[in-house]
Amino acid sequence: MARSAPFNSQAQGSQARRQKKGEAVRGHVGANGRRRGNEDSDEDEDEDEDMEDGAEAGRGGGNCGKELERDELNRLTASLVRLALFTEYKRHALRRDDINKKVLAGRTRAFNQVLASAQKHLSRTFGMELIELRTKGSAGGAKKGARKRKAAEGGEEEEEGKKGGGGSRSYILRSVIDPDVQARAAELEIIESDDDAEDDDADLSRSRKGLINWAKGDGRELLGILHTVLGLILVSGRVLSDDALFSYLKKLSLLPSTPLLIPGAIPHRPTLESQLSTLVRCGYLEKHKSTNPASTAQFEYRWGPRAEREIGEGQVAGFVADVYLAREEMSGRAKKEREAKIMNDIGRAAGGDFVEA
Predict the structure, then answer these.
(1) CB-hemisphere CA count at 13 Å for 260?
(2) Higher-confidence residue: 66 or 19?
(3) SS3 of residue 170 by DSSP
(4) Per-residue DSSP letters for 83-125?
(5) Which of 52, 85, 124, 240 could form a disulfide with 236 if both were Cys (CB 3.0 to 4.6 A apart)?
C-alpha cells in the first residue's frame, strides 16, 4: 500500500503520454493545415519576443544600450574626425547616413555619444565644430530675420521658427575661435625668412601682416567672388535675379564667360559662370527658377545653407561696410558712427535683422 501511490501515478503518466501521442498523430493526419498554422503562430510569437528583447536592449536592458568602452569610443571618435576633415576639405556636407555607414558600421544608437566626443576633439585640437545645416529651400535669412524681429516684439514667432526650421542631417565644420582672437591674429607682424638661401649671411627676411599667409592660400579668388556675390544678394533684399547679378558684376569687368586667373587652373581656367555653379554645389548659394512674373530673368540667387552657418550675414555686412569706409578718410568716433549708419542701411536693404552664423 505504501507503493501504490507512485505506481498509480506512473500508470496515469504513461496513459497520458499515449493519449497525447495519439492526438499528435491524428492532428498530423487529419488536421495538418491547422497544425501548420499553430507552428506559424508560434514562430510569430518568437519573432515578437525577439523584437521586444531588442527594444528592451535599446532602452538599456541589453548590451546595445550600454555606453561604448573607452578604447572603442576613441577609435570611433578618431574615425569621425578624420572623415569630417576629409569631407570639409572637398567642401562637401557630411551626411549622417555616411557617418552611420563609414564610422559606426550600423551602430546608430552610438551616434550621439560619438558625435559629442568628436566635438570635444575638434574644438580642442582644431578650433572647429560640426554644425548641422538647414534643408535646402527651407526658411532662409529673410524668414529668419522676420521671425527674429517679431520675437523681439512678442516672443511667439521665434519659437514657431525654431520648431519649423528642420535639420538636414548634414553637417559642416565651422571655426569656434573667438572673433576678437581672429582680429588680433590678422594684425600680427610675422617675420619670414628664406630657408632655401645659399648664403646664410644674406638678410632675406621679410615681414607680412597676419598670422595666416593668404598669399599662399588656396581659393582666395573664389573667396573674394563669394563675398561680393553674397553682399550683392544681401543688399538686394536677400534675393537677386541672375540678370541683375551679372549686371552688377559687369561693372567689375566680370562677365559670365570671363576666365578667372586662379593659380593652378591653367590651362583650363574656370569661368565666372562655372565658379558660380561651384558655389551652388558647395552650398554657399542657392539657385532657383524665378518666381517673379514681371521679371524676364530665368533664375534667382539666394544665400545657401553653408553661407548662413559658416559666414553669417553680419560678417558680410561688415565686409560691405569696410569697402565703403576704405574710400573715406575717417578715424575715431566719426568712423564708428559712419560704420554704424552703413550697417543700419544694409539691414534695411536686406529687409530684416541680420541672421548670424
Answers:
(1) 21
(2) 66
(3) strand
(4) HHHHHHHTT--EEHHHHHHHTSTT-GGGHHHHHHHHHHHIIII
(5) 240
